[in-house]
Design a protein that fits this description.
alpha/beta; 8-stranded mixed beta sheet; TIM Barrel; 417 residues; 33% helix; 5-stranded antiparallel beta sheet
């Protein structure tokens, strides 16, 4: 062997050694990167739990050199990584952070055909924890978007329940803030709406976080949530803890929603009499087509005078459940002629949405409607967005004795009782 050949052999051996060492170091570095990201995500979750509600984005920007989107990815890794199988955890740990996040992402949509050959798209929503909307775009304070398979309508012929079994151990979403404080929980077995109301907060949320946007979608796996969630002890003194705003991200009675979806939802409602399930629609006429269990609170949204007659005509024929009106947002003075048809009137303004500013109705409008409701014998709930102080607001509920505000003894004089 010549000196040149010996040198080449030695160089190749050294290069091979260097390659193997560098490869091992690269693998270990990648693995550490994911583990460091998990550690960072755990710290972020702990910090977020201590930061005052609505201030998370600001706190993160001031105190941490990390983008909010990156922080969300790290928290996702921290949530998902401990629950992975040993083999998948090892595989994910060997990836870069970007690749690890992709590995945990939801699959692309599949097209599913039912026995009747109706077409649905099977999708999964992005998995998120509580999203701070107050800091993001002032839509509503918080919401939770669950990772659950959904079936989306594909055309007008998709009118039957998909013959697919889904199992979910999820629970109701606990509400935060005062956006829907008359119900401490929300449940969305159906999402999506085609009304296109300009002030809709639900569309803003769906467009931002749902893969299918605001297309009508059914989540059969969420039908088990009423049974998976226990009524809290607070419900003994506050009925809002028994109340579940159902389909807060949809209009369940929209003409685009299949009867089969509606019937499945009400089967779950009837099977959980310990809860009150609150529904809202802008299609009250369709409510006449179904029968309801006693724990269904059937409501219709009236934002302007043009909706008043349709609401009264429909609820004159609705004979079961608790009947209520959501006057939110109140966009003009309203006059009812058959307000006695309703048990409860909720009055509110509007939070800022992607297409509309914040809106507080004039006080005189509110007072006039309040007086109409009182004369009709309705219980009244003033939303926080009316601009009233908390001590001024009424927070009454159907079938519950209204709390009477007592004058402190220190103010009583001239033989006042």
């Amino acid at each position: 062997m010549s000196d040149n050949e010996l040198m080449t052999t030695q160089d190749l051996a050294a290069l091979a050694k260097k390659i193997n060492a560098a490869n091992q170091q690269a693998n270990e570095t990648a693995k550490k990167a994911v583990l460091f990201a998990v550690e960072c995500g755990q710290a972020l979750i702990a910090a977020k739990a201590q930061v005052k509600h609505g201030e998370w984005s600001h706190w993160l920007k001031v105190n941490c050199d990390i983008a909010e989107r990156t922080a969300q990815n790290y928290m996702k890794l921290a949530n998902d990584y401990p629950s992975l199988s040993e083999s998948k955890a090892q595989r994910v740990a060997d990836l870069s952070i970007r690749e690890a996040i992709k590995e945990l992402a939801v699959p692309k949509a599949d097209i599913v055909k039912t026995a009747e050959n109706k077409r649905f798209a099977l999708v999964e929503t992005a998995e998120l924890e509580a999203v701070d909307y107050h800091a993001v775009d002032d839509v509503i304070e918080t919401a939770v978007v669950e990772k659950t398979p959904a079936f989306i309508l594909l055309g007008d012929d998709a009118l039957t329940l998909p013959d697919v079994e889904e199992h979910n151990k999820g629970k109701f979403n606990k509400q935060e803030g005062d956006s829907i404080e008359w119900a401490q929980f929300s449940w969305n077995p159906v999402t999506g709406c085609k009304h296109d109301c300009p002030y809709c907060y639900a569309r803003d949320i769906a467009d931002r976080f749902y893969k299918q946007k605001f297309e009508p979608s059914f989540y059969p796996g969420r039908l088990s949530m009423p049974k998976n969630t226990k009524v809290p002890l607070e419900a003994m003194g506050d009925v809002s803890y028994k109340n579940v705003f159902t389909c807060s991200m949809a209009d369940l009675f929209g003409r685009w929603v299949p009867d089969a979806w509606i019937n499945e939802v009400f089967k779950a409602v009837a099977d959980s009499p310990e809860w009150n399930f609150l529904f809202l629609t802008k299609f009250p006429k369709r409510m006449i087509e179904f029968s309801y269990p006693a724990n269904a609170w059937l409501g219709t949204s009236v934002d302007c005078q043009a909706r008043v007659k349709a609401a009264e005509d429909a609820f004159e024929k609705v004979t079961s459940g608790t009947k209520w009106l959501s006057i939110e947002p109140m966009l003009e003075p309203l006059k009812f002629t058959r307000l006695k048809l309703f048990d409860w009137v909720v009055i509110g303004g509007s939070s800022k949405s992607a297409r509309t500013p914040e809106w507080t109705p004039p006080f005189d409008w509110v007072v006039d409607l309040h007086n109409q409701a009182r004369e009709a014998g309705c219980k009244i709930y003033h939303k926080a967005n009316l601009g009233l102080t908390d001590s001024m607001r009424l927070k009454e509920f159907p079938w519950c004795d209204a709390k009477q505000k007592e004058l402190p003894d220190a103010f009583k004089y001239l033989n006042m009782k």
